[in-house]
Amino acid sequence: MAFWLLADLLILLASAAESVAGQPAASCQARCGDIDIPYPFGIGPNCSRGKGFEIACNPQNDSGEMVPTLAAANGTIHVQSLLVAPIPEVKVMLPVAYQCYYSNNSITDSFYGEVDLNNKGVYRISDSRNMFVVIGCNTLSYTQNGNSSGKGPYAGLYYTGCVSYCNDSSSARDSMCAGVGCCHVDISPGLSDNIVSFGPWPRGFQVDFSPCDYSFLVDKKEYEFRSADLKMDLNRTMPVWLDWAIRDSVTCPPLGVQEKKPAGYACMSDNSECVNSTNGPGYYCKCKQGYDGNPYVDKDQGCKDINECDVSNKKKYPCYGVCNNIPGDYECHCRVGYQWSGEGPKKQECSSKFPLAARLSLGTYAPQHFFKKYMK
């Protein structure tokens, strides 16, 4: 019995060491439900790069389906996708904030959509992919982000919001979100939290067709206003993109240091490179040009050479001649008897070395001197 306990302990220690070295242990779970879990993310502390990258995998209450969530975040934030390339992004579902009213203007129900991703953690709310939306009639709502720590007159570091109104039940129009029943604004970079506030505004007359105020973050491409949303489901969630980065250091280490792969450096593949984060401090890793894969792992699972000459890659890597794959790139040469001009055979068709008159006569007569002159 003692022997087997010791064997199990050694396996666990080996798994943990393997993960820290930039290679997730073979025993690590690679999927949760229908979502891939690529390293540096992982289910369990010994399968991820660290606490911020841990993913919880638990059954959903109503269906029993296994659902991935961000283990380090407050509340339950469902994960839709985890991307390491070409840029580091995580798609999650965040709740809609709301405040509902009686006709006498008193509040019946409310939820302010608080999200805290920890400003010392790996995630930031993507300013390039998301917007802040407000829905309602005679509605003022804004989001407050960050803690000013007593510097200045405001509690938060950033505020943004907008106002929407309605004259009557027919004012709001589908697909229109410019201030009537719906409005939207861009958000700032660097945000790791969100809490919504609703401004005071007399309600009374519109509670039958607009009983609540709503506001939420959402992917710019995945929400289009519908007038029916004035009576939105209070349990609704919206798709939101998060940027992530390695935040152990503020920027990429110097190039010479990167090549030595110092302790803690995340870009483990020999064919990877470091890129400074544009949303918050830190850096992320990507495969060098001509390579594809996971830059955060080494050995056979890291960045691999792309075979640009493969038929499946023809549109992305065109060659109007003979293709030859080389490490990190590909060569393209014109076929025998043809030559290139202008931008070369990667960009345009090769032209024949033979004059037109010679090509017309090839079917009946091809003197030897033509071949000697033009087939070089």
From TrEMBL:
Subcellular location: Membrane
Gene3D superfamilies attached to this UniProt entry: Laminin
GO terms of molecular function: calcium ion binding; polysaccharide binding
Source organism superkingdom: Eukaryota
InterPro entries assigned: EGF, EGF-like_Ca-bd_dom, EGF_Ca-bd_CS, NOTCH1_EGF-like, WAK_GUB
Membrane topology: Single-pass membrane protein
Signal peptide: 1-16
Domain named EGF-like calcium-binding: residues: 305-351
GO cellular component: membrane
Keywords: Disulfide bond, EGF-like domain, Signal
Annotated ranges, domain EGF-like: 251-304, 308-351
Pfam family, one: GUB_WAK_bind
The protein, known as: EGF-like domain-containing protein
